[in-house]
Amino acid sequence: MCRHLGWLGRPRSIAELMLEPPYGLLVQSYAPRRQKYGLLNADGWGVGFFDDDGVARRWRSATPLWGDASFASIAPVLRSGCVVAAVRSATVGMPIEPSASAPFTDGHWLLSHNGRVDRAVLDTAAARAESTVDSALLAATIFERGLDRLGETLRDVAAADPDARLNILAGNGTRLLATTWGDTLSVLAGDDGVVLASEPYDDDPRWRDVPDRHLVEVTGAGVEMMALEGTA
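The structure assignment produced for this chain is given below.
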């Protein structure tokens, strides 16, 4: 379980997206407003972004976001037009380590998972995963099958584990993809870009909630939302 955020648009600082909003990921790490499972997100955090050359860069930690003074000092000068960030609440029994914090990457996409899934249904991904946690195994499975098959992959995983919660958020520098499957997601489309977030980071009236079992795609052309066919 976690809270995550994605941005696609004009370059913005990481601090603008994560630390400065009144209810941003920093606040969500200790006082989320809409989290259905767990009370806080103190088991690590991570941020990934694409640099001017389109290379994916990451900073991940196993410590609470509110306690990382070095990140707070650097975040205002880190800027990108595509960002994926998350704060983590570890599932009981899962390790707490930097490699267990999203975003995960295949070198082209940055991906976060908000939810839980039985690792047994993902055991074939173990050799490719960055960590033994369920989210890393799920990310490896998604990367292997390709993000264009995201909806199909999630339907297959849910068929194997009907109790799975599968909110995904992924970006590749020019595109964001996100799903709702058992938890919350909201979208804010502004003049300079689009935010996808587990919950609104401020009280802007333009935030829209995404219905459950939906896929959202954000590109330079705008926001497209579609139901995940074949789901209940």
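Interim note for the steering committee: The chain is about 15% helix and 35% strand. The mean pLDDT is 96.
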